[in-house]
Amino acid sequence: MSLTFYTNPMSRGQIARWALHEAGAQYDQVLLDYDTTMKGEDYLAINPMGKVPAIVHDGRIVTECAAICAYLADTFPDSGLAPTEDERADYYRWMFFAAGPVEAAVMHKTLELEVDPEKERMLGYGNFDRVIDVLDQKLSDSDYICGDRFTMADVYVGSHVDWGQQFGSMPERDSFQAYAQRLRDRETYKASKAVDAALMPEQAAS
Length: 206
Description:
Number of helices: 8
Number of domains: 2
Strand order of the largest sheet: 2-1-3-4
Shape: globular
Order of helices and strands: EHEHEEHHHHHH
Oligomer: single chain
CATH class of the largest domain: Mainly Alpha
Largest sheet: 4 strands, mixed
CATH topology of the largest domain: Glutathione S-transferase Yfyf (Class Pi), Chain A, domain 2
Helix content: 40-55%
Number of strands: 4
Strand content: 5-15%
């Protein structure tokens, strides 16, 4: 088996690295910079969008963080990160809620893009406050996305919440703070973040 991970330590690649560590996957890494290699022909042949992360597993290309997370959970079943039959609905519902409404709402808010309330129905998420309230309610009702058990959905949803609490792109709510802390206490989280933290000065200087 060969697995190559394309990333930049100051990117959403941190999500995929955490997922790789949770899955117990052995991988080779290729570090890319935003100005040159990420836009080079070699990498564009892997991801024509010219963005990271991406993985190539035995010749199969997977891009997009949510897809990488789901793929790794399925590909490494011994990790126990894929959902059981009873968990599947919550697992997919909330993973793609984060990939769609949460991602869009937070980015629009961060970029200070105002939407006329009469046009909210045209958006996939309605408005920022509604998205935050819905996610808050979910995380107030259960410790993890699938109840009381950590799954790969928590890597993806949790990365959004963790980032949002660290950098202020989401309001501080008790449910968000408690959830983020549960994730930060995981040894795999700490290990993956340490790798990227060590690479950041090197990448910034390159």
